[in-house]
Amino acid sequence: MEKIKLVSDYMEGCCPEILKRLSDINFEKNTGYGLDKYSESAREKIRAACEAPDAAIYFLVGGTQTNETVISTVLRSYEGALAADTGHVNTHEAGAIEHGGHKVLTLPAVNGKISAAAVEDYMKVFFADANHEHEVAPGMIYISQPTEYGTLYTLTELMELRAIADRYDLKLYVDGARLGYGLAAAAFDRENGSPLSAPDDAVDLPALARLSDVFYIGGTKVGALFGEAVVFPHGDIVPHFYTITKQHGAMLAKGWLTGIQFDTLFTDGLYITISTNAIARAREIRYTLLKYGYELYIDSPTNQIFPVVTDEFAAKLSESVDYGFMNSLPGGRKVIRFCTSWATPKEDVERLGEVIRALD
Amino acid sequence: MEKIKLVSDYMEGCCPEILKRLSDINFEKNTGYGLDKYSESAREKIRAACEAPDAAIYFLVGGTQTNETVISTVLRSYEGALAADTGHVNTHEAGAIEHGGHKVLTLPAVNGKISAAAVEDYMKVFFADANHEHEVAPGMIYISQPTEYGTLYTLTELMELRAIADRYDLKLYVDGARLGYGLAAAAFDRENGSPLSAPDDAVDLPALARLSDVFYIGGTKVGALFGEAVVFPHGDIVPHFYTITKQHGAMLAKGWLTGIQFDTLFTDGLYITISTNAIARAREIRYTLLKYGYELYIDSPTNQIFPVVTDEFAAKLSESVDYGFMNSLPGGRKVIRFCTSWATPKEDVERLGEVIRALD
Amino acid sequence: MEKIKLVSDYMEGCCPEILKRLSDINFEKNTGYGLDKYSESAREKIRAACEAPDAAIYFLVGGTQTNETVISTVLRSYEGALAADTGHVNTHEAGAIEHGGHKVLTLPAVNGKISAAAVEDYMKVFFADANHEHEVAPGMIYISQPTEYGTLYTLTELMELRAIADRYDLKLYVDGARLGYGLAAAAFDRENGSPLSAPDDAVDLPALARLSDVFYIGGTKVGALFGEAVVFPHGDIVPHFYTITKQHGAMLAKGWLTGIQFDTLFTDGLYITISTNAIARAREIRYTLLKYGYELYIDSPTNQIFPVVTDEFAAKLSESVDYGFMNSLPGGRKVIRFCTSWATPKEDVERLGEVIRALD
Amino acid sequence: MEKIKLVSDYMEGCCPEILKRLSDINFEKNTGYGLDKYSESAREKIRAACEAPDAAIYFLVGGTQTNETVISTVLRSYEGALAADTGHVNTHEAGAIEHGGHKVLTLPAVNGKISAAAVEDYMKVFFADANHEHEVAPGMIYISQPTEYGTLYTLTELMELRAIADRYDLKLYVDGARLGYGLAAAAFDRENGSPLSAPDDAVDLPALARLSDVFYIGGTKVGALFGEAVVFPHGDIVPHFYTITKQHGAMLAKGWLTGIQFDTLFTDGLYITISTNAIARAREIRYTLLKYGYELYIDSPTNQIFPVVTDEFAAKLSESVDYGFMNSLPGGRKVIRFCTSWATPKEDVERLGEVIRALD
C-alpha cells in the first residue's frame, strides 16, 4: 500500500478549476509578459478582494524568487530586513536575499513570530550605537502569514507592527506563501465556533492591504501549479518593477498562465474554499494527536501540525507515512511536521489516524 | 475578423501531448524541486538524444533566468562573456547578466552570428594591452542557436568556435531558446533537398553536446508551457548548481511540471516533429515574400522571417497582421519580423499570403 | 642614465605642501571616518570653489572605487550608464561597474567624447523598441573631463548634455580623475592667448557644479598621495551615501588623511597651480612633435599627448623613454602616449626633445 | 586641558619610520598598482616572517574592503562564512559581506571567540536537515585575531579550528586588523613572565600561515597610515586576485605607498616593537582598574580593555576622557572600552590613572 504523504503542501498539480481553464485556452493566442487580459482580470479581482483599488500587482513564479525580487528592490542598498530567525528568507532560500545584496537581521522567533516590542528593542540598540552608520540599517520588517510554524499574526499584532514600522520608517512586507490557509483558518473557526486561530482578531485581505507596504498571495502552495501575486496595495512604490522582474529572471514569457490561475482562484472565493480543506484535515490530525496524548511543539491553527514524538515513534511512523522533520529535541525526541493541502484526501487523514492508533 | 498573429513563438500554451500528461498526473503526489521520476526520466532521454551519458541536466523556468544563472556561475567574478551585439543577453534581458555581476563583451554580429576569427581578434587586442589585467577577462563565448535573427551556426563554424575557445581557455555556452527550430530546419531541408539551412553541415544535439561546455534546450518557445533544460554535457562543471538554481529563484517547487514536459518533448522525437511545423510555415511565408519581390534583411532558414518593407506597407499590414518590428532603415523602410511556431496554423499563413497579395 | 618616465601621471608621491602637512599633524589625534576638522575644512573650501554652498562632499580613495560607488547607488537597479566606448568605466576598471550590477551602455567616442546628439539618438532608438521595458534603461550620462584621450568638453557641450539629460530624466556624472589638468589647460591658454583648450568656452568648477548631478575631483593623479572628492553639488541625492562608502570598502579609517590633502589642494589655488606644470610640459612635448612632423592621433590640450609613430620609432624610443601604448594602426604604425604630471621636471621634457631630435 | 583620547587605535598617522621613508621617496617615480620594488620587498619580508615561501601577498587599503574582497572571492556563490556574532563582518561593515553576495552565518561568541565544537555542532545540524541543499552552505570559518573583544585564540584552539575546517572542507580565514597587538602580547608576556595571553600556547606568524587558508596583517591600526596585507600562505587559491582587487576598488594606483609601509613594518621587527607599546599601556590601564576594584567584562590580554562601570561613572569620566561604548548592562551599568595603540603616550595612561583615582 502506498505511503500516506503529508510532507508538504506542494505535492499535487493544481485545483481542477485551474486545470480546466488552462486546457480551455491552450490554443488561444495571448500577449506575453503579463500584459494579457487574464492577468488584468486577475489584478482587478485581487484589488477588489483587498479593497485596494490602487494596488499594483505583479505575478511572479515562485516564493524565493518573489522574496528576493521584492526585498532587494524595496530596500536601499545599505538596508537589511528584520525577520524571525525561523523566517524562510533566513533559512531555506539558499542565501537568495544575501545574493541580492541584503542582510537578514534576525530576531528570535516566538512561535515563529516576531513582535513589535522586539523590533523596537532592536531599533533602540541600533540607534544607541554611536557607530550605527557603520551597521546595516533596518529598512524592512519581514513576516510570514502564516509563519513557517503555521502560526498567525493577529490583527492586533499586525497593527502594532505597522505602528512600529511607521515610527522607524520601515517597510512592512508579508510573505503569504500559505496565505490562503491563514485566511481559511479564521473562516473555519468562525464557522465552527473555535478560538484556535483567534478568528475575532484575524487578519483578512483588506487588513493586509491596509497595513502592509507589500505582500504576496501564494499560489504554488494553495491550488495553483505555480505563481505568487505580489501586491503593492498603495500603488507602485518601486519604479519599473516590471523591468525588475525581467532582470531578476522572474518574468514568465507566457504570463497569462499565471494570470489565469489567479483569475480562477479569485473567482467566487475559490482561494478560500479550497484552502478550507487543508484546515479541516489539519484539525482532524491535531484532534487525533491530542486525543492520544501527543504534545504539540507549537499549536498551529493552520495546515501544519507539529507533534513532539520519540525517535522510535518517528522511525515506525515513517514505514507508512511521509512527514517532515523540523528539529531534534533533547532526550531522544524530535519535532515532526504533518502538512495538509487543498488536495489532501479525507481518507489519507483517516488512515493516518489508524496508524497513530496502532502505534499507541 | 481577428488579426493574424505572427508576433512571436510563445503565444500559445503547450502542445496537446504535454497538456494531456499534465492532466493525467495532476493529482499524483510528487516529490518537489526536480527530484521526481519525470524529471529523472527526462534527463535520461535528453542524455540519450545528446549521446552524452555523463551530462548533468537541470530544468529551469525561463530563458533570461537561465542565461543569468548559467553565465554568472560558470564565469569567475572578473570574467565577462563574449557575445554578438545582437545577442539576447546584450539586448532584451533588462541587464540580468550585469545585475549578476558580469560584463557582456560585444562583437559586431554578422547575420546575427560571431566568428572564431572575430573572437581571436578580440583576444589578441586584449592581450596586446599591457594593462589587460585591469580589463574584464573574456571567460566565455556566448552564442544563440538559432540566433536572434533566425540564422544557424554550421557544424564547421561551431568547431572553429570550440577550437578558439580551447586556445584561449574560454567556455562555450549555447543559448538554445529556439533550438528545436534549428534542429528541425536541417531535418526539413534534408527531407526537401533544400540547402537553406546547410543541412550537410548542420549542428545536431550530439554535436552540440560534444562541442559546448553548457547549453540549454528551449521549451518555452518550442511547445512547452515554460521551461528550459540546462545541459552540462561533460558533467557538473559548476559545483552545487542545484543550490545555485534555488538561490537564483530558478528552482520550481513543483519541478516535475518541467520534468514531464521535457520527458514528453523527448519521447518519440516530438521536439523535432512539432518544430517542423514552424519551419514549414516559415518557408511558405518566405516563398510568398520572395515571389512578390520583397527583400529579406537576413535570409533566415528557421522560424523567423525578416522582410524589408516600406513604412507605408508596414502600416497597412498592421491592420490585419500582428508582426514584430526589428529596426528602421534609411529611406522610409524598416525590417519587420514574422515569427511562426509549433502551433502556427497553415490557414494563418495562407491568410497572410492573401494580405500580401492584396497589398502588392 | 635612467629612462625618461612619461608613462602616467601617478608615478610620484604628493606635492610638497601635502607632505609637509601630513608630517605636521602625524601625531595629532583625529576622529576617524571623515568626521574630522580637516575634512570639514576641505569640504568648505571645495564648496566655495564650486560656488555650491549646499554641496554634499565625500572623500574616497581611488577612481575605480569612486566610479563604482557613485554609479551603482545613483542608478536604480534596472538602469545603466551611457558612456563613450573609450570611457574608463568601460575599459580599465576590471568590470567594477558590472560587478556592481549595472550595464555600461556605450556610444562611439569621437575624440574621446560623446555628444548630446548621440545621446538623443540612443534614447530615440531605445523608446522606438516596443519592448524597451525589457532593455536596460539609460539612467545616467557618464563623461570624463578631461577624457581618457586628454580632450575637454566645452561649456557649450556640457550645457547640451545637461539639456538632453533633463529631457530624458538622466543623471549627469562627470569623472574628474584628471580634472585639475582640464581646469589648468584653460587657465594656461587664457594666459598664453592660445585657443587649444577653447578657453573662452571652458568648463570651470562652478559650471561643473551647476550642470552636473555628481562629479569627482581627482586627487590621485593631481598632486595627492591618493583620494578623490565626490561632489553632489545640489546636496545629497543618494540617502546615506556615508554608510554606502563604508559598505563599498571606500571609507578610509583615517579619513583626515584625505581631508587634509584636499584642504591643502584647495588652499590658495594650489590645485590649479600644480596642474599648470603638467600643461606647460605637455605643450612643450606637443610643440616638439609637431615641429618634427609627427601626426597627433588626437590633439589633446591637456597633459596627455598622443603621437602616431612607426613601430620602428616606438621600439627605438623605448630604449630611453617609458611611454604608454594606446592602440595599433594599420601599416606598421601605432598610437603612443606621453603623460605629464604636476611633478614632471622640465629637464625630462628637454631630454625627450633631444631623443626625438636624435631619432629624426 | 585636552581630553585623554583612548577611543580607538587609528587616531594618529603613522610611525615615524614610515613617515620618513614616504618622505624620502616622495619624488621617486614608481610603477603603479603594486608592481613596484617596495611592494616586492615587503612581500619577501612577510614571506620570511611567516616562513611561507610560496605565499601570495596583496596589499589592500582597509579592513572592510579586505574582508569583502577576500570572502566574496574565496567563497563560491552559494556559500556563507561562519563567524562569531560579535565578528566585525557581522556588525560594523555596513553589510559589505552581504552586499558582496554572502551570508554571515553566526555562532554565539564566547569572549569574542568561536570554538571548533561550535562549528561542528553547526555542521551537524546543517547536514541533519534533509533540505540543506536549500540552505546557505558554510564555506569558511572567519575569525579575528585578536578578536573585537581583544581576546586571542590559542595555538591549540587554532589547530582545532583547522582540524574541523579540514573535516568539513571549509576555508579558514583570519582577520588580523589588530594582529600586531596579538603577536606583541605574547612577546610581552613571555618577557614579563605573565600568563595573561597564554604565551606558551600562542599563535605566531608561521603558525597562522601554516594553519589558515588566508589571513591579513593589519596596517591601519598598527602603525601604518593605511593598508592591510592579504596573505594566501599556500599560494594563490583565488585565480586573478590581482584583477579582483581592481574590480573591488581595492587596488591603490600608487601601490608602492602601501608596499613601503609594510616593508618598513617588517624590517627589524618593527611591527612587534611598536605594537608592544600598546600592550604595555593597556596593561597599565588594566592594573589600575583592577586595583580600584573595577570588574572587567572580558579580561583582554591585548590593547583593548573593557571595564564594567556605572552610568554615573561613565558620565563623569567622559568629561576628561574619550573612550568607547560597547553595550549596556542591566542595573544602570555599561561596558566601556579603553583602546591603546602603538602611539599611546605613557603620560596619557598616567593621567587616566589620576582621573580614575579621583573618581574613586
Characterization of the model:
Four copies of one chain form a homotetramer. Chain A is an alpha/beta fold. Chain A has helices at residues 16-24, 37-50, 63-74, 88-91, 96-99, 116-128, 155-167, 179-192, 205-211, 241-247, 256-265, 270-291, 311-317, 346-359, and strands at residues 4-5, 56-60, 79-84, 104-107, 137-144, 171-176, 214-218, 228-232, 295-298, 304-310, 321-322, 324-329, 333-339. The first copy, chain A, has a seven-stranded mixed β-sheet, with helices on both faces. The radius of gyration of chain A is 21 Å and the shape is globular. At the A-B interface, α1, α3 and α10 of A face α1, α3 and α10 of B.
In short:
Chain A is built from 14 helices and 13 strands.
User: Which structural class best describes the helix and strand composition of chain A?
Assistant: alpha/beta
Mean pLDDT of chain A: 97
Rg calculated over all Cα atoms of chain A = 21 Å
Strand order of the largest sheet of chain A: 2-8-7-6-5-3-4
Shape of chain A: globular
Q: How much strand of chain A? A: 15-25%
Helices and strands of chain A, in order, run as EHHEHEHHEHEHEHHEEHHHEEHEEEH
Secondary-structure topology with pairs:
Four copies of one chain form a homotetramer.
Chain A: E1 4-5, H1 16-24, H2 37-50, E2 56-60, H3 63-74, E3 79-84, H4 88-91, H5 96-99, E4 104-107, H6 116-128, E5 137-144, H7 155-167, E6 171-176, H8 179-192, H9 205-211, E7 214-218, E8 228-232, H10 241-247, H11 256-265, H12 270-291, E9 295-298, E10 304-310, H13 311-317, E11 321-322, E12 324-329, E13 333-339, H14 346-359
Parallel strand pairs in A: 1-11, 3-4, 3-5, 5-6, 6-7
Antiparallel strand pairs in A: 2-8, 7-8, 9-10, 10-13, 12-13
Helix pairs in contact in A: 1-11, 2-11, 6-7, 8-12, 12-14
